[in-house]
Amino acid sequence: MTTEATPLPDVHDDAHWMALALAEARLAAEAGEVPVGAVLVKDGRLVATGRNTPVAQNDPSAHAEINALRAGALALGNYRLDGCELFVTLEPCAMCSGAMLHSRLARVVYGASDPKTGAAGSVLDLFAEPRLNHRTVVQGGVLAQECSAVLQAFFQRRRNAARATAEPLRDDALRTSPERFEALVGYDFAPHYVQDLPSLQGWRMHYVDEGAEDAACCLCLHGPGEWGYFFRHLVGLPGLRTLVPDLIGFGRSDKPKREAAHSLQWHRHVLLEWMARVGVESVALVHSEAASELAVLLQAAAPGRFAAALVAPDGHEHIKDAWRAPFPDRGYEAALRALGPLATSSGPTPEQARTVVLQVRNAMGYSNA
């Protein structure tokens, strides 16, 4: 059966629907997905929306167009979408084009062309295949610049993060751009990185190491939803060597995309290997309240390593922007989803930090005279 082509609507209507598809694309970007959005329209009315969700759903077919078609079929109670138009921000691939033809769409409108996988004329043109029994009108280039800009900005952020250092970035992880941390006050300490520990499996962990090697040594442990910034007033104080790792998934460390990569037991194993690498034999463990469970696991695994353990006080300052800095969008937040929400703590104040120094030195037998 061949469906007759519908007349081309007013270009202003096309721009209106494409703007809605762009809104879906931006939501996809916020979730860490490639920003492609789609809307399904019939008789001038919105039927369904869709955006890319392959990462979130672990589904290679969860493209924006497929999600919109599925939602539209459910809304209309029919897998054949006769008379419907689909607006999508990027030229559809072969998979999506095939689904559009099977659904009997009257018209497909896309924004930016895709020279790598586009199946509406760029790489191949399934819609022009004469042996297929359905004809769908295709129009490209609607709000093309706006659609391209969203994609380009997304991939530029990813490239900037990957180029931040020479260390390779695994395909299943993200790396927060250093620019995200530049505006933070009081945490401009020299960064250190380790990537070759067996337990890290190629992910890169950031840590701060400040103070003389012969000073009382303090391992500062943040909890889920926090990062090393929690200890900003403690790092660099006289009489103390402070080691402050950012757990994988937090702070300046790499962010594995899958929630299953994050567990407290695995973080404990990484920390033990890292302590051996930096040559720490005996330390005082200073941890946030949120890190209490991990601190217990760490001490149980290596009881001889820790001369003392204490919970760092919390000054209850307002530093929400600092906690958000490592997470540009939801794609970076797998560790938060796996282990706990964004922190509401702030770490010790300068006065409280000076008290912690005295406590650590006393516990490790150093004179405070």
From TrEMBL:
<feature type="active site" description="Proton donor">
    <location>
        <position position="65"/>
    </location>
</feature>
<comment type="subunit">
    <text>Homodimer.</text>
</comment>
<feature type="domain" description="CMP/dCMP-type deaminase">
    <location>
        <begin position="12"/>
        <end position="139"/>
    </location>
</feature>
<feature type="binding site">
    <location>
        <position position="93"/>
    </location>
    <ligand>
        <name>Zn(2+)</name>
    </ligand>
</feature>
<dbReference type="InterPro" id="IPR016193">
    <property type="entry name" value="Cytidine_deaminase-like"/>
</dbReference>
<protein>
    <recommendedName>
        <fullName>tRNA-specific adenosine deaminase</fullName>
        <ecNumber>3.5.4.33</ecNumber>
    </recommendedName>
</protein>
<dbReference type="InterPro" id="IPR028883">
    <property type="entry name" value="tRNA_aden_deaminase"/>
</dbReference>
<comment type="similarity">
    <text>Belongs to the cytidine and deoxycytidylate deaminase family. ADAT2 subfamily.</text>
</comment>
<feature type="binding site">
    <location>
        <position position="63"/>
    </location>
    <ligand>
        <name>Zn(2+)</name>
    </ligand>
</feature>
<dbReference type="GO" id="GO:0002100">
    <property type="term" value="P:tRNA wobble adenosine to inosine editing"/>
</dbReference>
<dbReference type="InterPro" id="IPR029058">
    <property type="entry name" value="AB_hydrolase_fold"/>
</dbReference>
<dbReference type="Pfam" id="PF00383">
    <property type="entry name" value="dCMP_cyt_deam_1"/>
</dbReference>
<dbReference type="InterPro" id="IPR002125">
    <property type="entry name" value="CMP_dCMP_dom"/>
</dbReference>
<dbReference type="GO" id="GO:0052717">
    <property type="term" value="F:tRNA-specific adenosine-34 deaminase activity"/>
</dbReference>
<comment type="function">
    <text>Catalyzes the deamination of adenosine to inosine at the wobble position 34 of tRNA(Arg2).</text>
</comment>
<keyword id="KW-0479">Metal-binding</keyword>
<dbReference type="InterPro" id="IPR016192">
    <property type="entry name" value="APOBEC/CMP_deaminase_Zn-bd"/>
</dbReference>
<feature type="binding site">
    <location>
        <position position="96"/>
    </location>
    <ligand>
        <name>Zn(2+)</name>
    </ligand>
</feature>
<keyword id="KW-0819">tRNA processing</keyword>
<keyword id="KW-0378">Hydrolase</keyword>
<dbReference type="GO" id="GO:0008270">
    <property type="term" value="F:zinc ion binding"/>
</dbReference>
<keyword id="KW-0862">Zinc</keyword>
